[in-house]
Amino acid sequence: MTTAALYTVRSGDTLGKIANAHRTTVNELARLNNISDPNRIAVGQVLKLSESPKAKPPAVAKQDDWGTFWAQFVDALNNPIQGLKVALHLGDERLECTTDANGCLPAYAVSKPNTPITITVKKSDGAEKTVAKLVAPAGETHARIASPKVTITSVMRKHDGATRPPAPTKPAEPGEVKETRSAGGNPVQQVSLECPNPENLKLGSNFKYRDIVIAAAKRAGVIPQAVAAIMNAEAATITIVHHIPVIDPKTKKQKIGKDGKPVFKTFRENTGEWDAKSASPRSSARGMTQFLDGTWLGMACTAGTFLNARAKKERWLTQTTIEVKKGKKTTTQTVQAFRLADDTLVTKAPLANTLNRKYVTGRAKSSDANLQKLLDLRFEPEYAIQTAVDYGMQNLKGLEAAGYELNGLSDGDKAKLMYLTHHLGLGDAKSFIQNTISDSRAEYLLKQQIGGKKADVYFDEEGSYINAHRKWLAGYIDEKIDTKKFVCAPDKSAATKLISTTDSIAKK
């Protein structure tokens, strides 16, 4: 009996990539493997590439094959578009609807899997414009449709007085809305979109952090796309929970449960927006870049960092003189000190370790008000982003101090090394560059990151944990740290793979 061909998902794979390699389609793979969200596949997952030649499709769709479709509309600045008149063409059926305050349409029943869906919107002249075409597999289908325009609310009216040319204005910042008038007195709203801009920087849902990213890049002497890539890899992201009505395929109305209440499904949407208020339930990691208590205090006590400057400005960090006894001789020495809320100075070195051990009383909790304020700066995006970049540059200096030549590397290459050293720590990062990590250490690191089952899949493919860990981590960093994701106008330069970069700087 002939069986269907199978494929095991590897790091860096997407359903589209797999489909192209095996001359099939995303929709076909989703159908064969009952995948409701084509954007979500896992390393180690076994996919069916085709049906057995003897397999026959069911004559009638099963109950499980009925699905639900809903869509959300956002503008060029990622804001929801409210009140948009939309027409859905679900197969031969046409439905007219209007987006709500969140830019969402109601949920609709899809009568059978692989139903073609066309979405049109009404233009100002009343004509319809097609904005999306897709095929809905069985199960839940969510479409997020981004407009190239910006939604604004205007209260302007035509000027009744004499006409005059608009006054000259300075160039608008990306995202800025300016109200002016034409030479004929008609109201004009000038909206500057994110792209193009002088930095060629595209942040999408993280547009609000543009000024901070640019400032951090300038301090570090790298392109802002490198900072954005690091942040995108490091930062926790905001997930929105949607409660979607469960539609009865026969009545096409929302189902009612046995308790007499409407039935909903929960859908979690990762917005991609960096979460400034993120807090780990398993450790003291807090804020957008998930700094641990001790690491954050260490950066605060490091001269020249953005966080150190703030701590000095608040007078939490200062200098004082202490007496030092050496045998019978007593001398004075100037040392760094932390000022507690009661004006007591903590001076015992290393200062960050002393503060963390003695005055941090729980995860992200301190017994001292001043120290608590310092720890809470992790929740402020400016300090989270600037400190993440400072930490990355500090690790690059550590590599240079160890004799690695980094001057010839691009900013994208340096961003990958920043993430490598942050991910592994400086010691293991050096071993990774030299390819001298032991098999037992590689096994431990890999299983810590992806779990035993997935690690074993990599081991079976690569023959050793050294090769397995190296392949997984290189693929992960190449995917996560990609400066090309943050440009308005793409350039022709090829991204360097991490292994090529580490091989180029490894000591011979």
UniProtKB/TrEMBL annotation:
PROSITE patterns: LYSM. This is LysM domain-containing protein. Coiled coil: none annotated. Pfam families: LysM (PF01476). InterPro entries: LysM, LysM_dom_sf. Residues 5-49 form the LysM domain. SUPFAM superfamilies: LysM domain. Residues 158-194 are annotated as: Disordered. Signal peptide: none annotated.
